[in-house]
Amino acid sequence: MLGPFGWLVLTSLKAPEEVAALPVQWLPETFRWGNYSEAWSGVIDYLGYARNSLIIAAIYSVLVTLSSAWAGYGFARLSAPGKKALFGLLLSTMMLPQMITFIPTYLIFARLNMLNTYWPWVLWGVVGAPYLIFLFRQFFAGMPRELEEAAIIDGCGYAHIFWRIFLPQSWPAIAASLVISFAWSWGDYLAPMMLLSSDRTTLAVALSTSFVNEQGLPINNLMAAGAVIYVLPPLLLFLVAQRGFIAGISTSGLK
Length: 255
Known about the structure:
The protein is mainly α and about 260 residues long. It is built from 15 helices and no strands. α3 packs across α14 (about 220-230), α4 packs parallel to α7 and α4 (about 45-75) packs across α8 (about 130-140).
């Protein structure tokens, strides 16, 4: 599992001629730590593109977590005609490849004048994600019925029960949802490439298209250095959310 990442780190410390050398040169003759500073400030506006990625990922991850939790609560705790069929239809959408729906989605956003804006990620966030809805549905289905019954006796409505009781108890699912959705959006290449202009695009697109030399060939060592820095935000988020995940497990349920 760590092999590709280790090779990426070694590539980021090589000279350009060492990357393309045959036979393969596993270790660099000299560790070129300056590749990281050059990737950060020498070729592209790394911080600016990272800011765009962070804004999009933060907006999407927060909105999709809240909307998916709300939908998952409805599927888990409420009764309505056709709920099982609707839930089955929701799960079936997980089998659709993104490429099948992307062209119609692009045309819709174009007609709504939402190209080169962050509104598509807002709309994607507020409608929820099938996998995250399933995640919250399974979590809420396992919570004690006594919590809900006690709140109903006290006169609470279902919305109040969700916001005041179920959502605060669901930190393990929230932590998992934030990490997954942030990684989805942070690592997405196709949507920003198609929907955003070059100055508003994300770091994923900039890394794959901007590290080229005068002949238009990729500068692989600088691209690798930029990619190593690129994986740090979701990695740090995972480490922070992992603490919340463990704490949520120890404090969830009845007290």
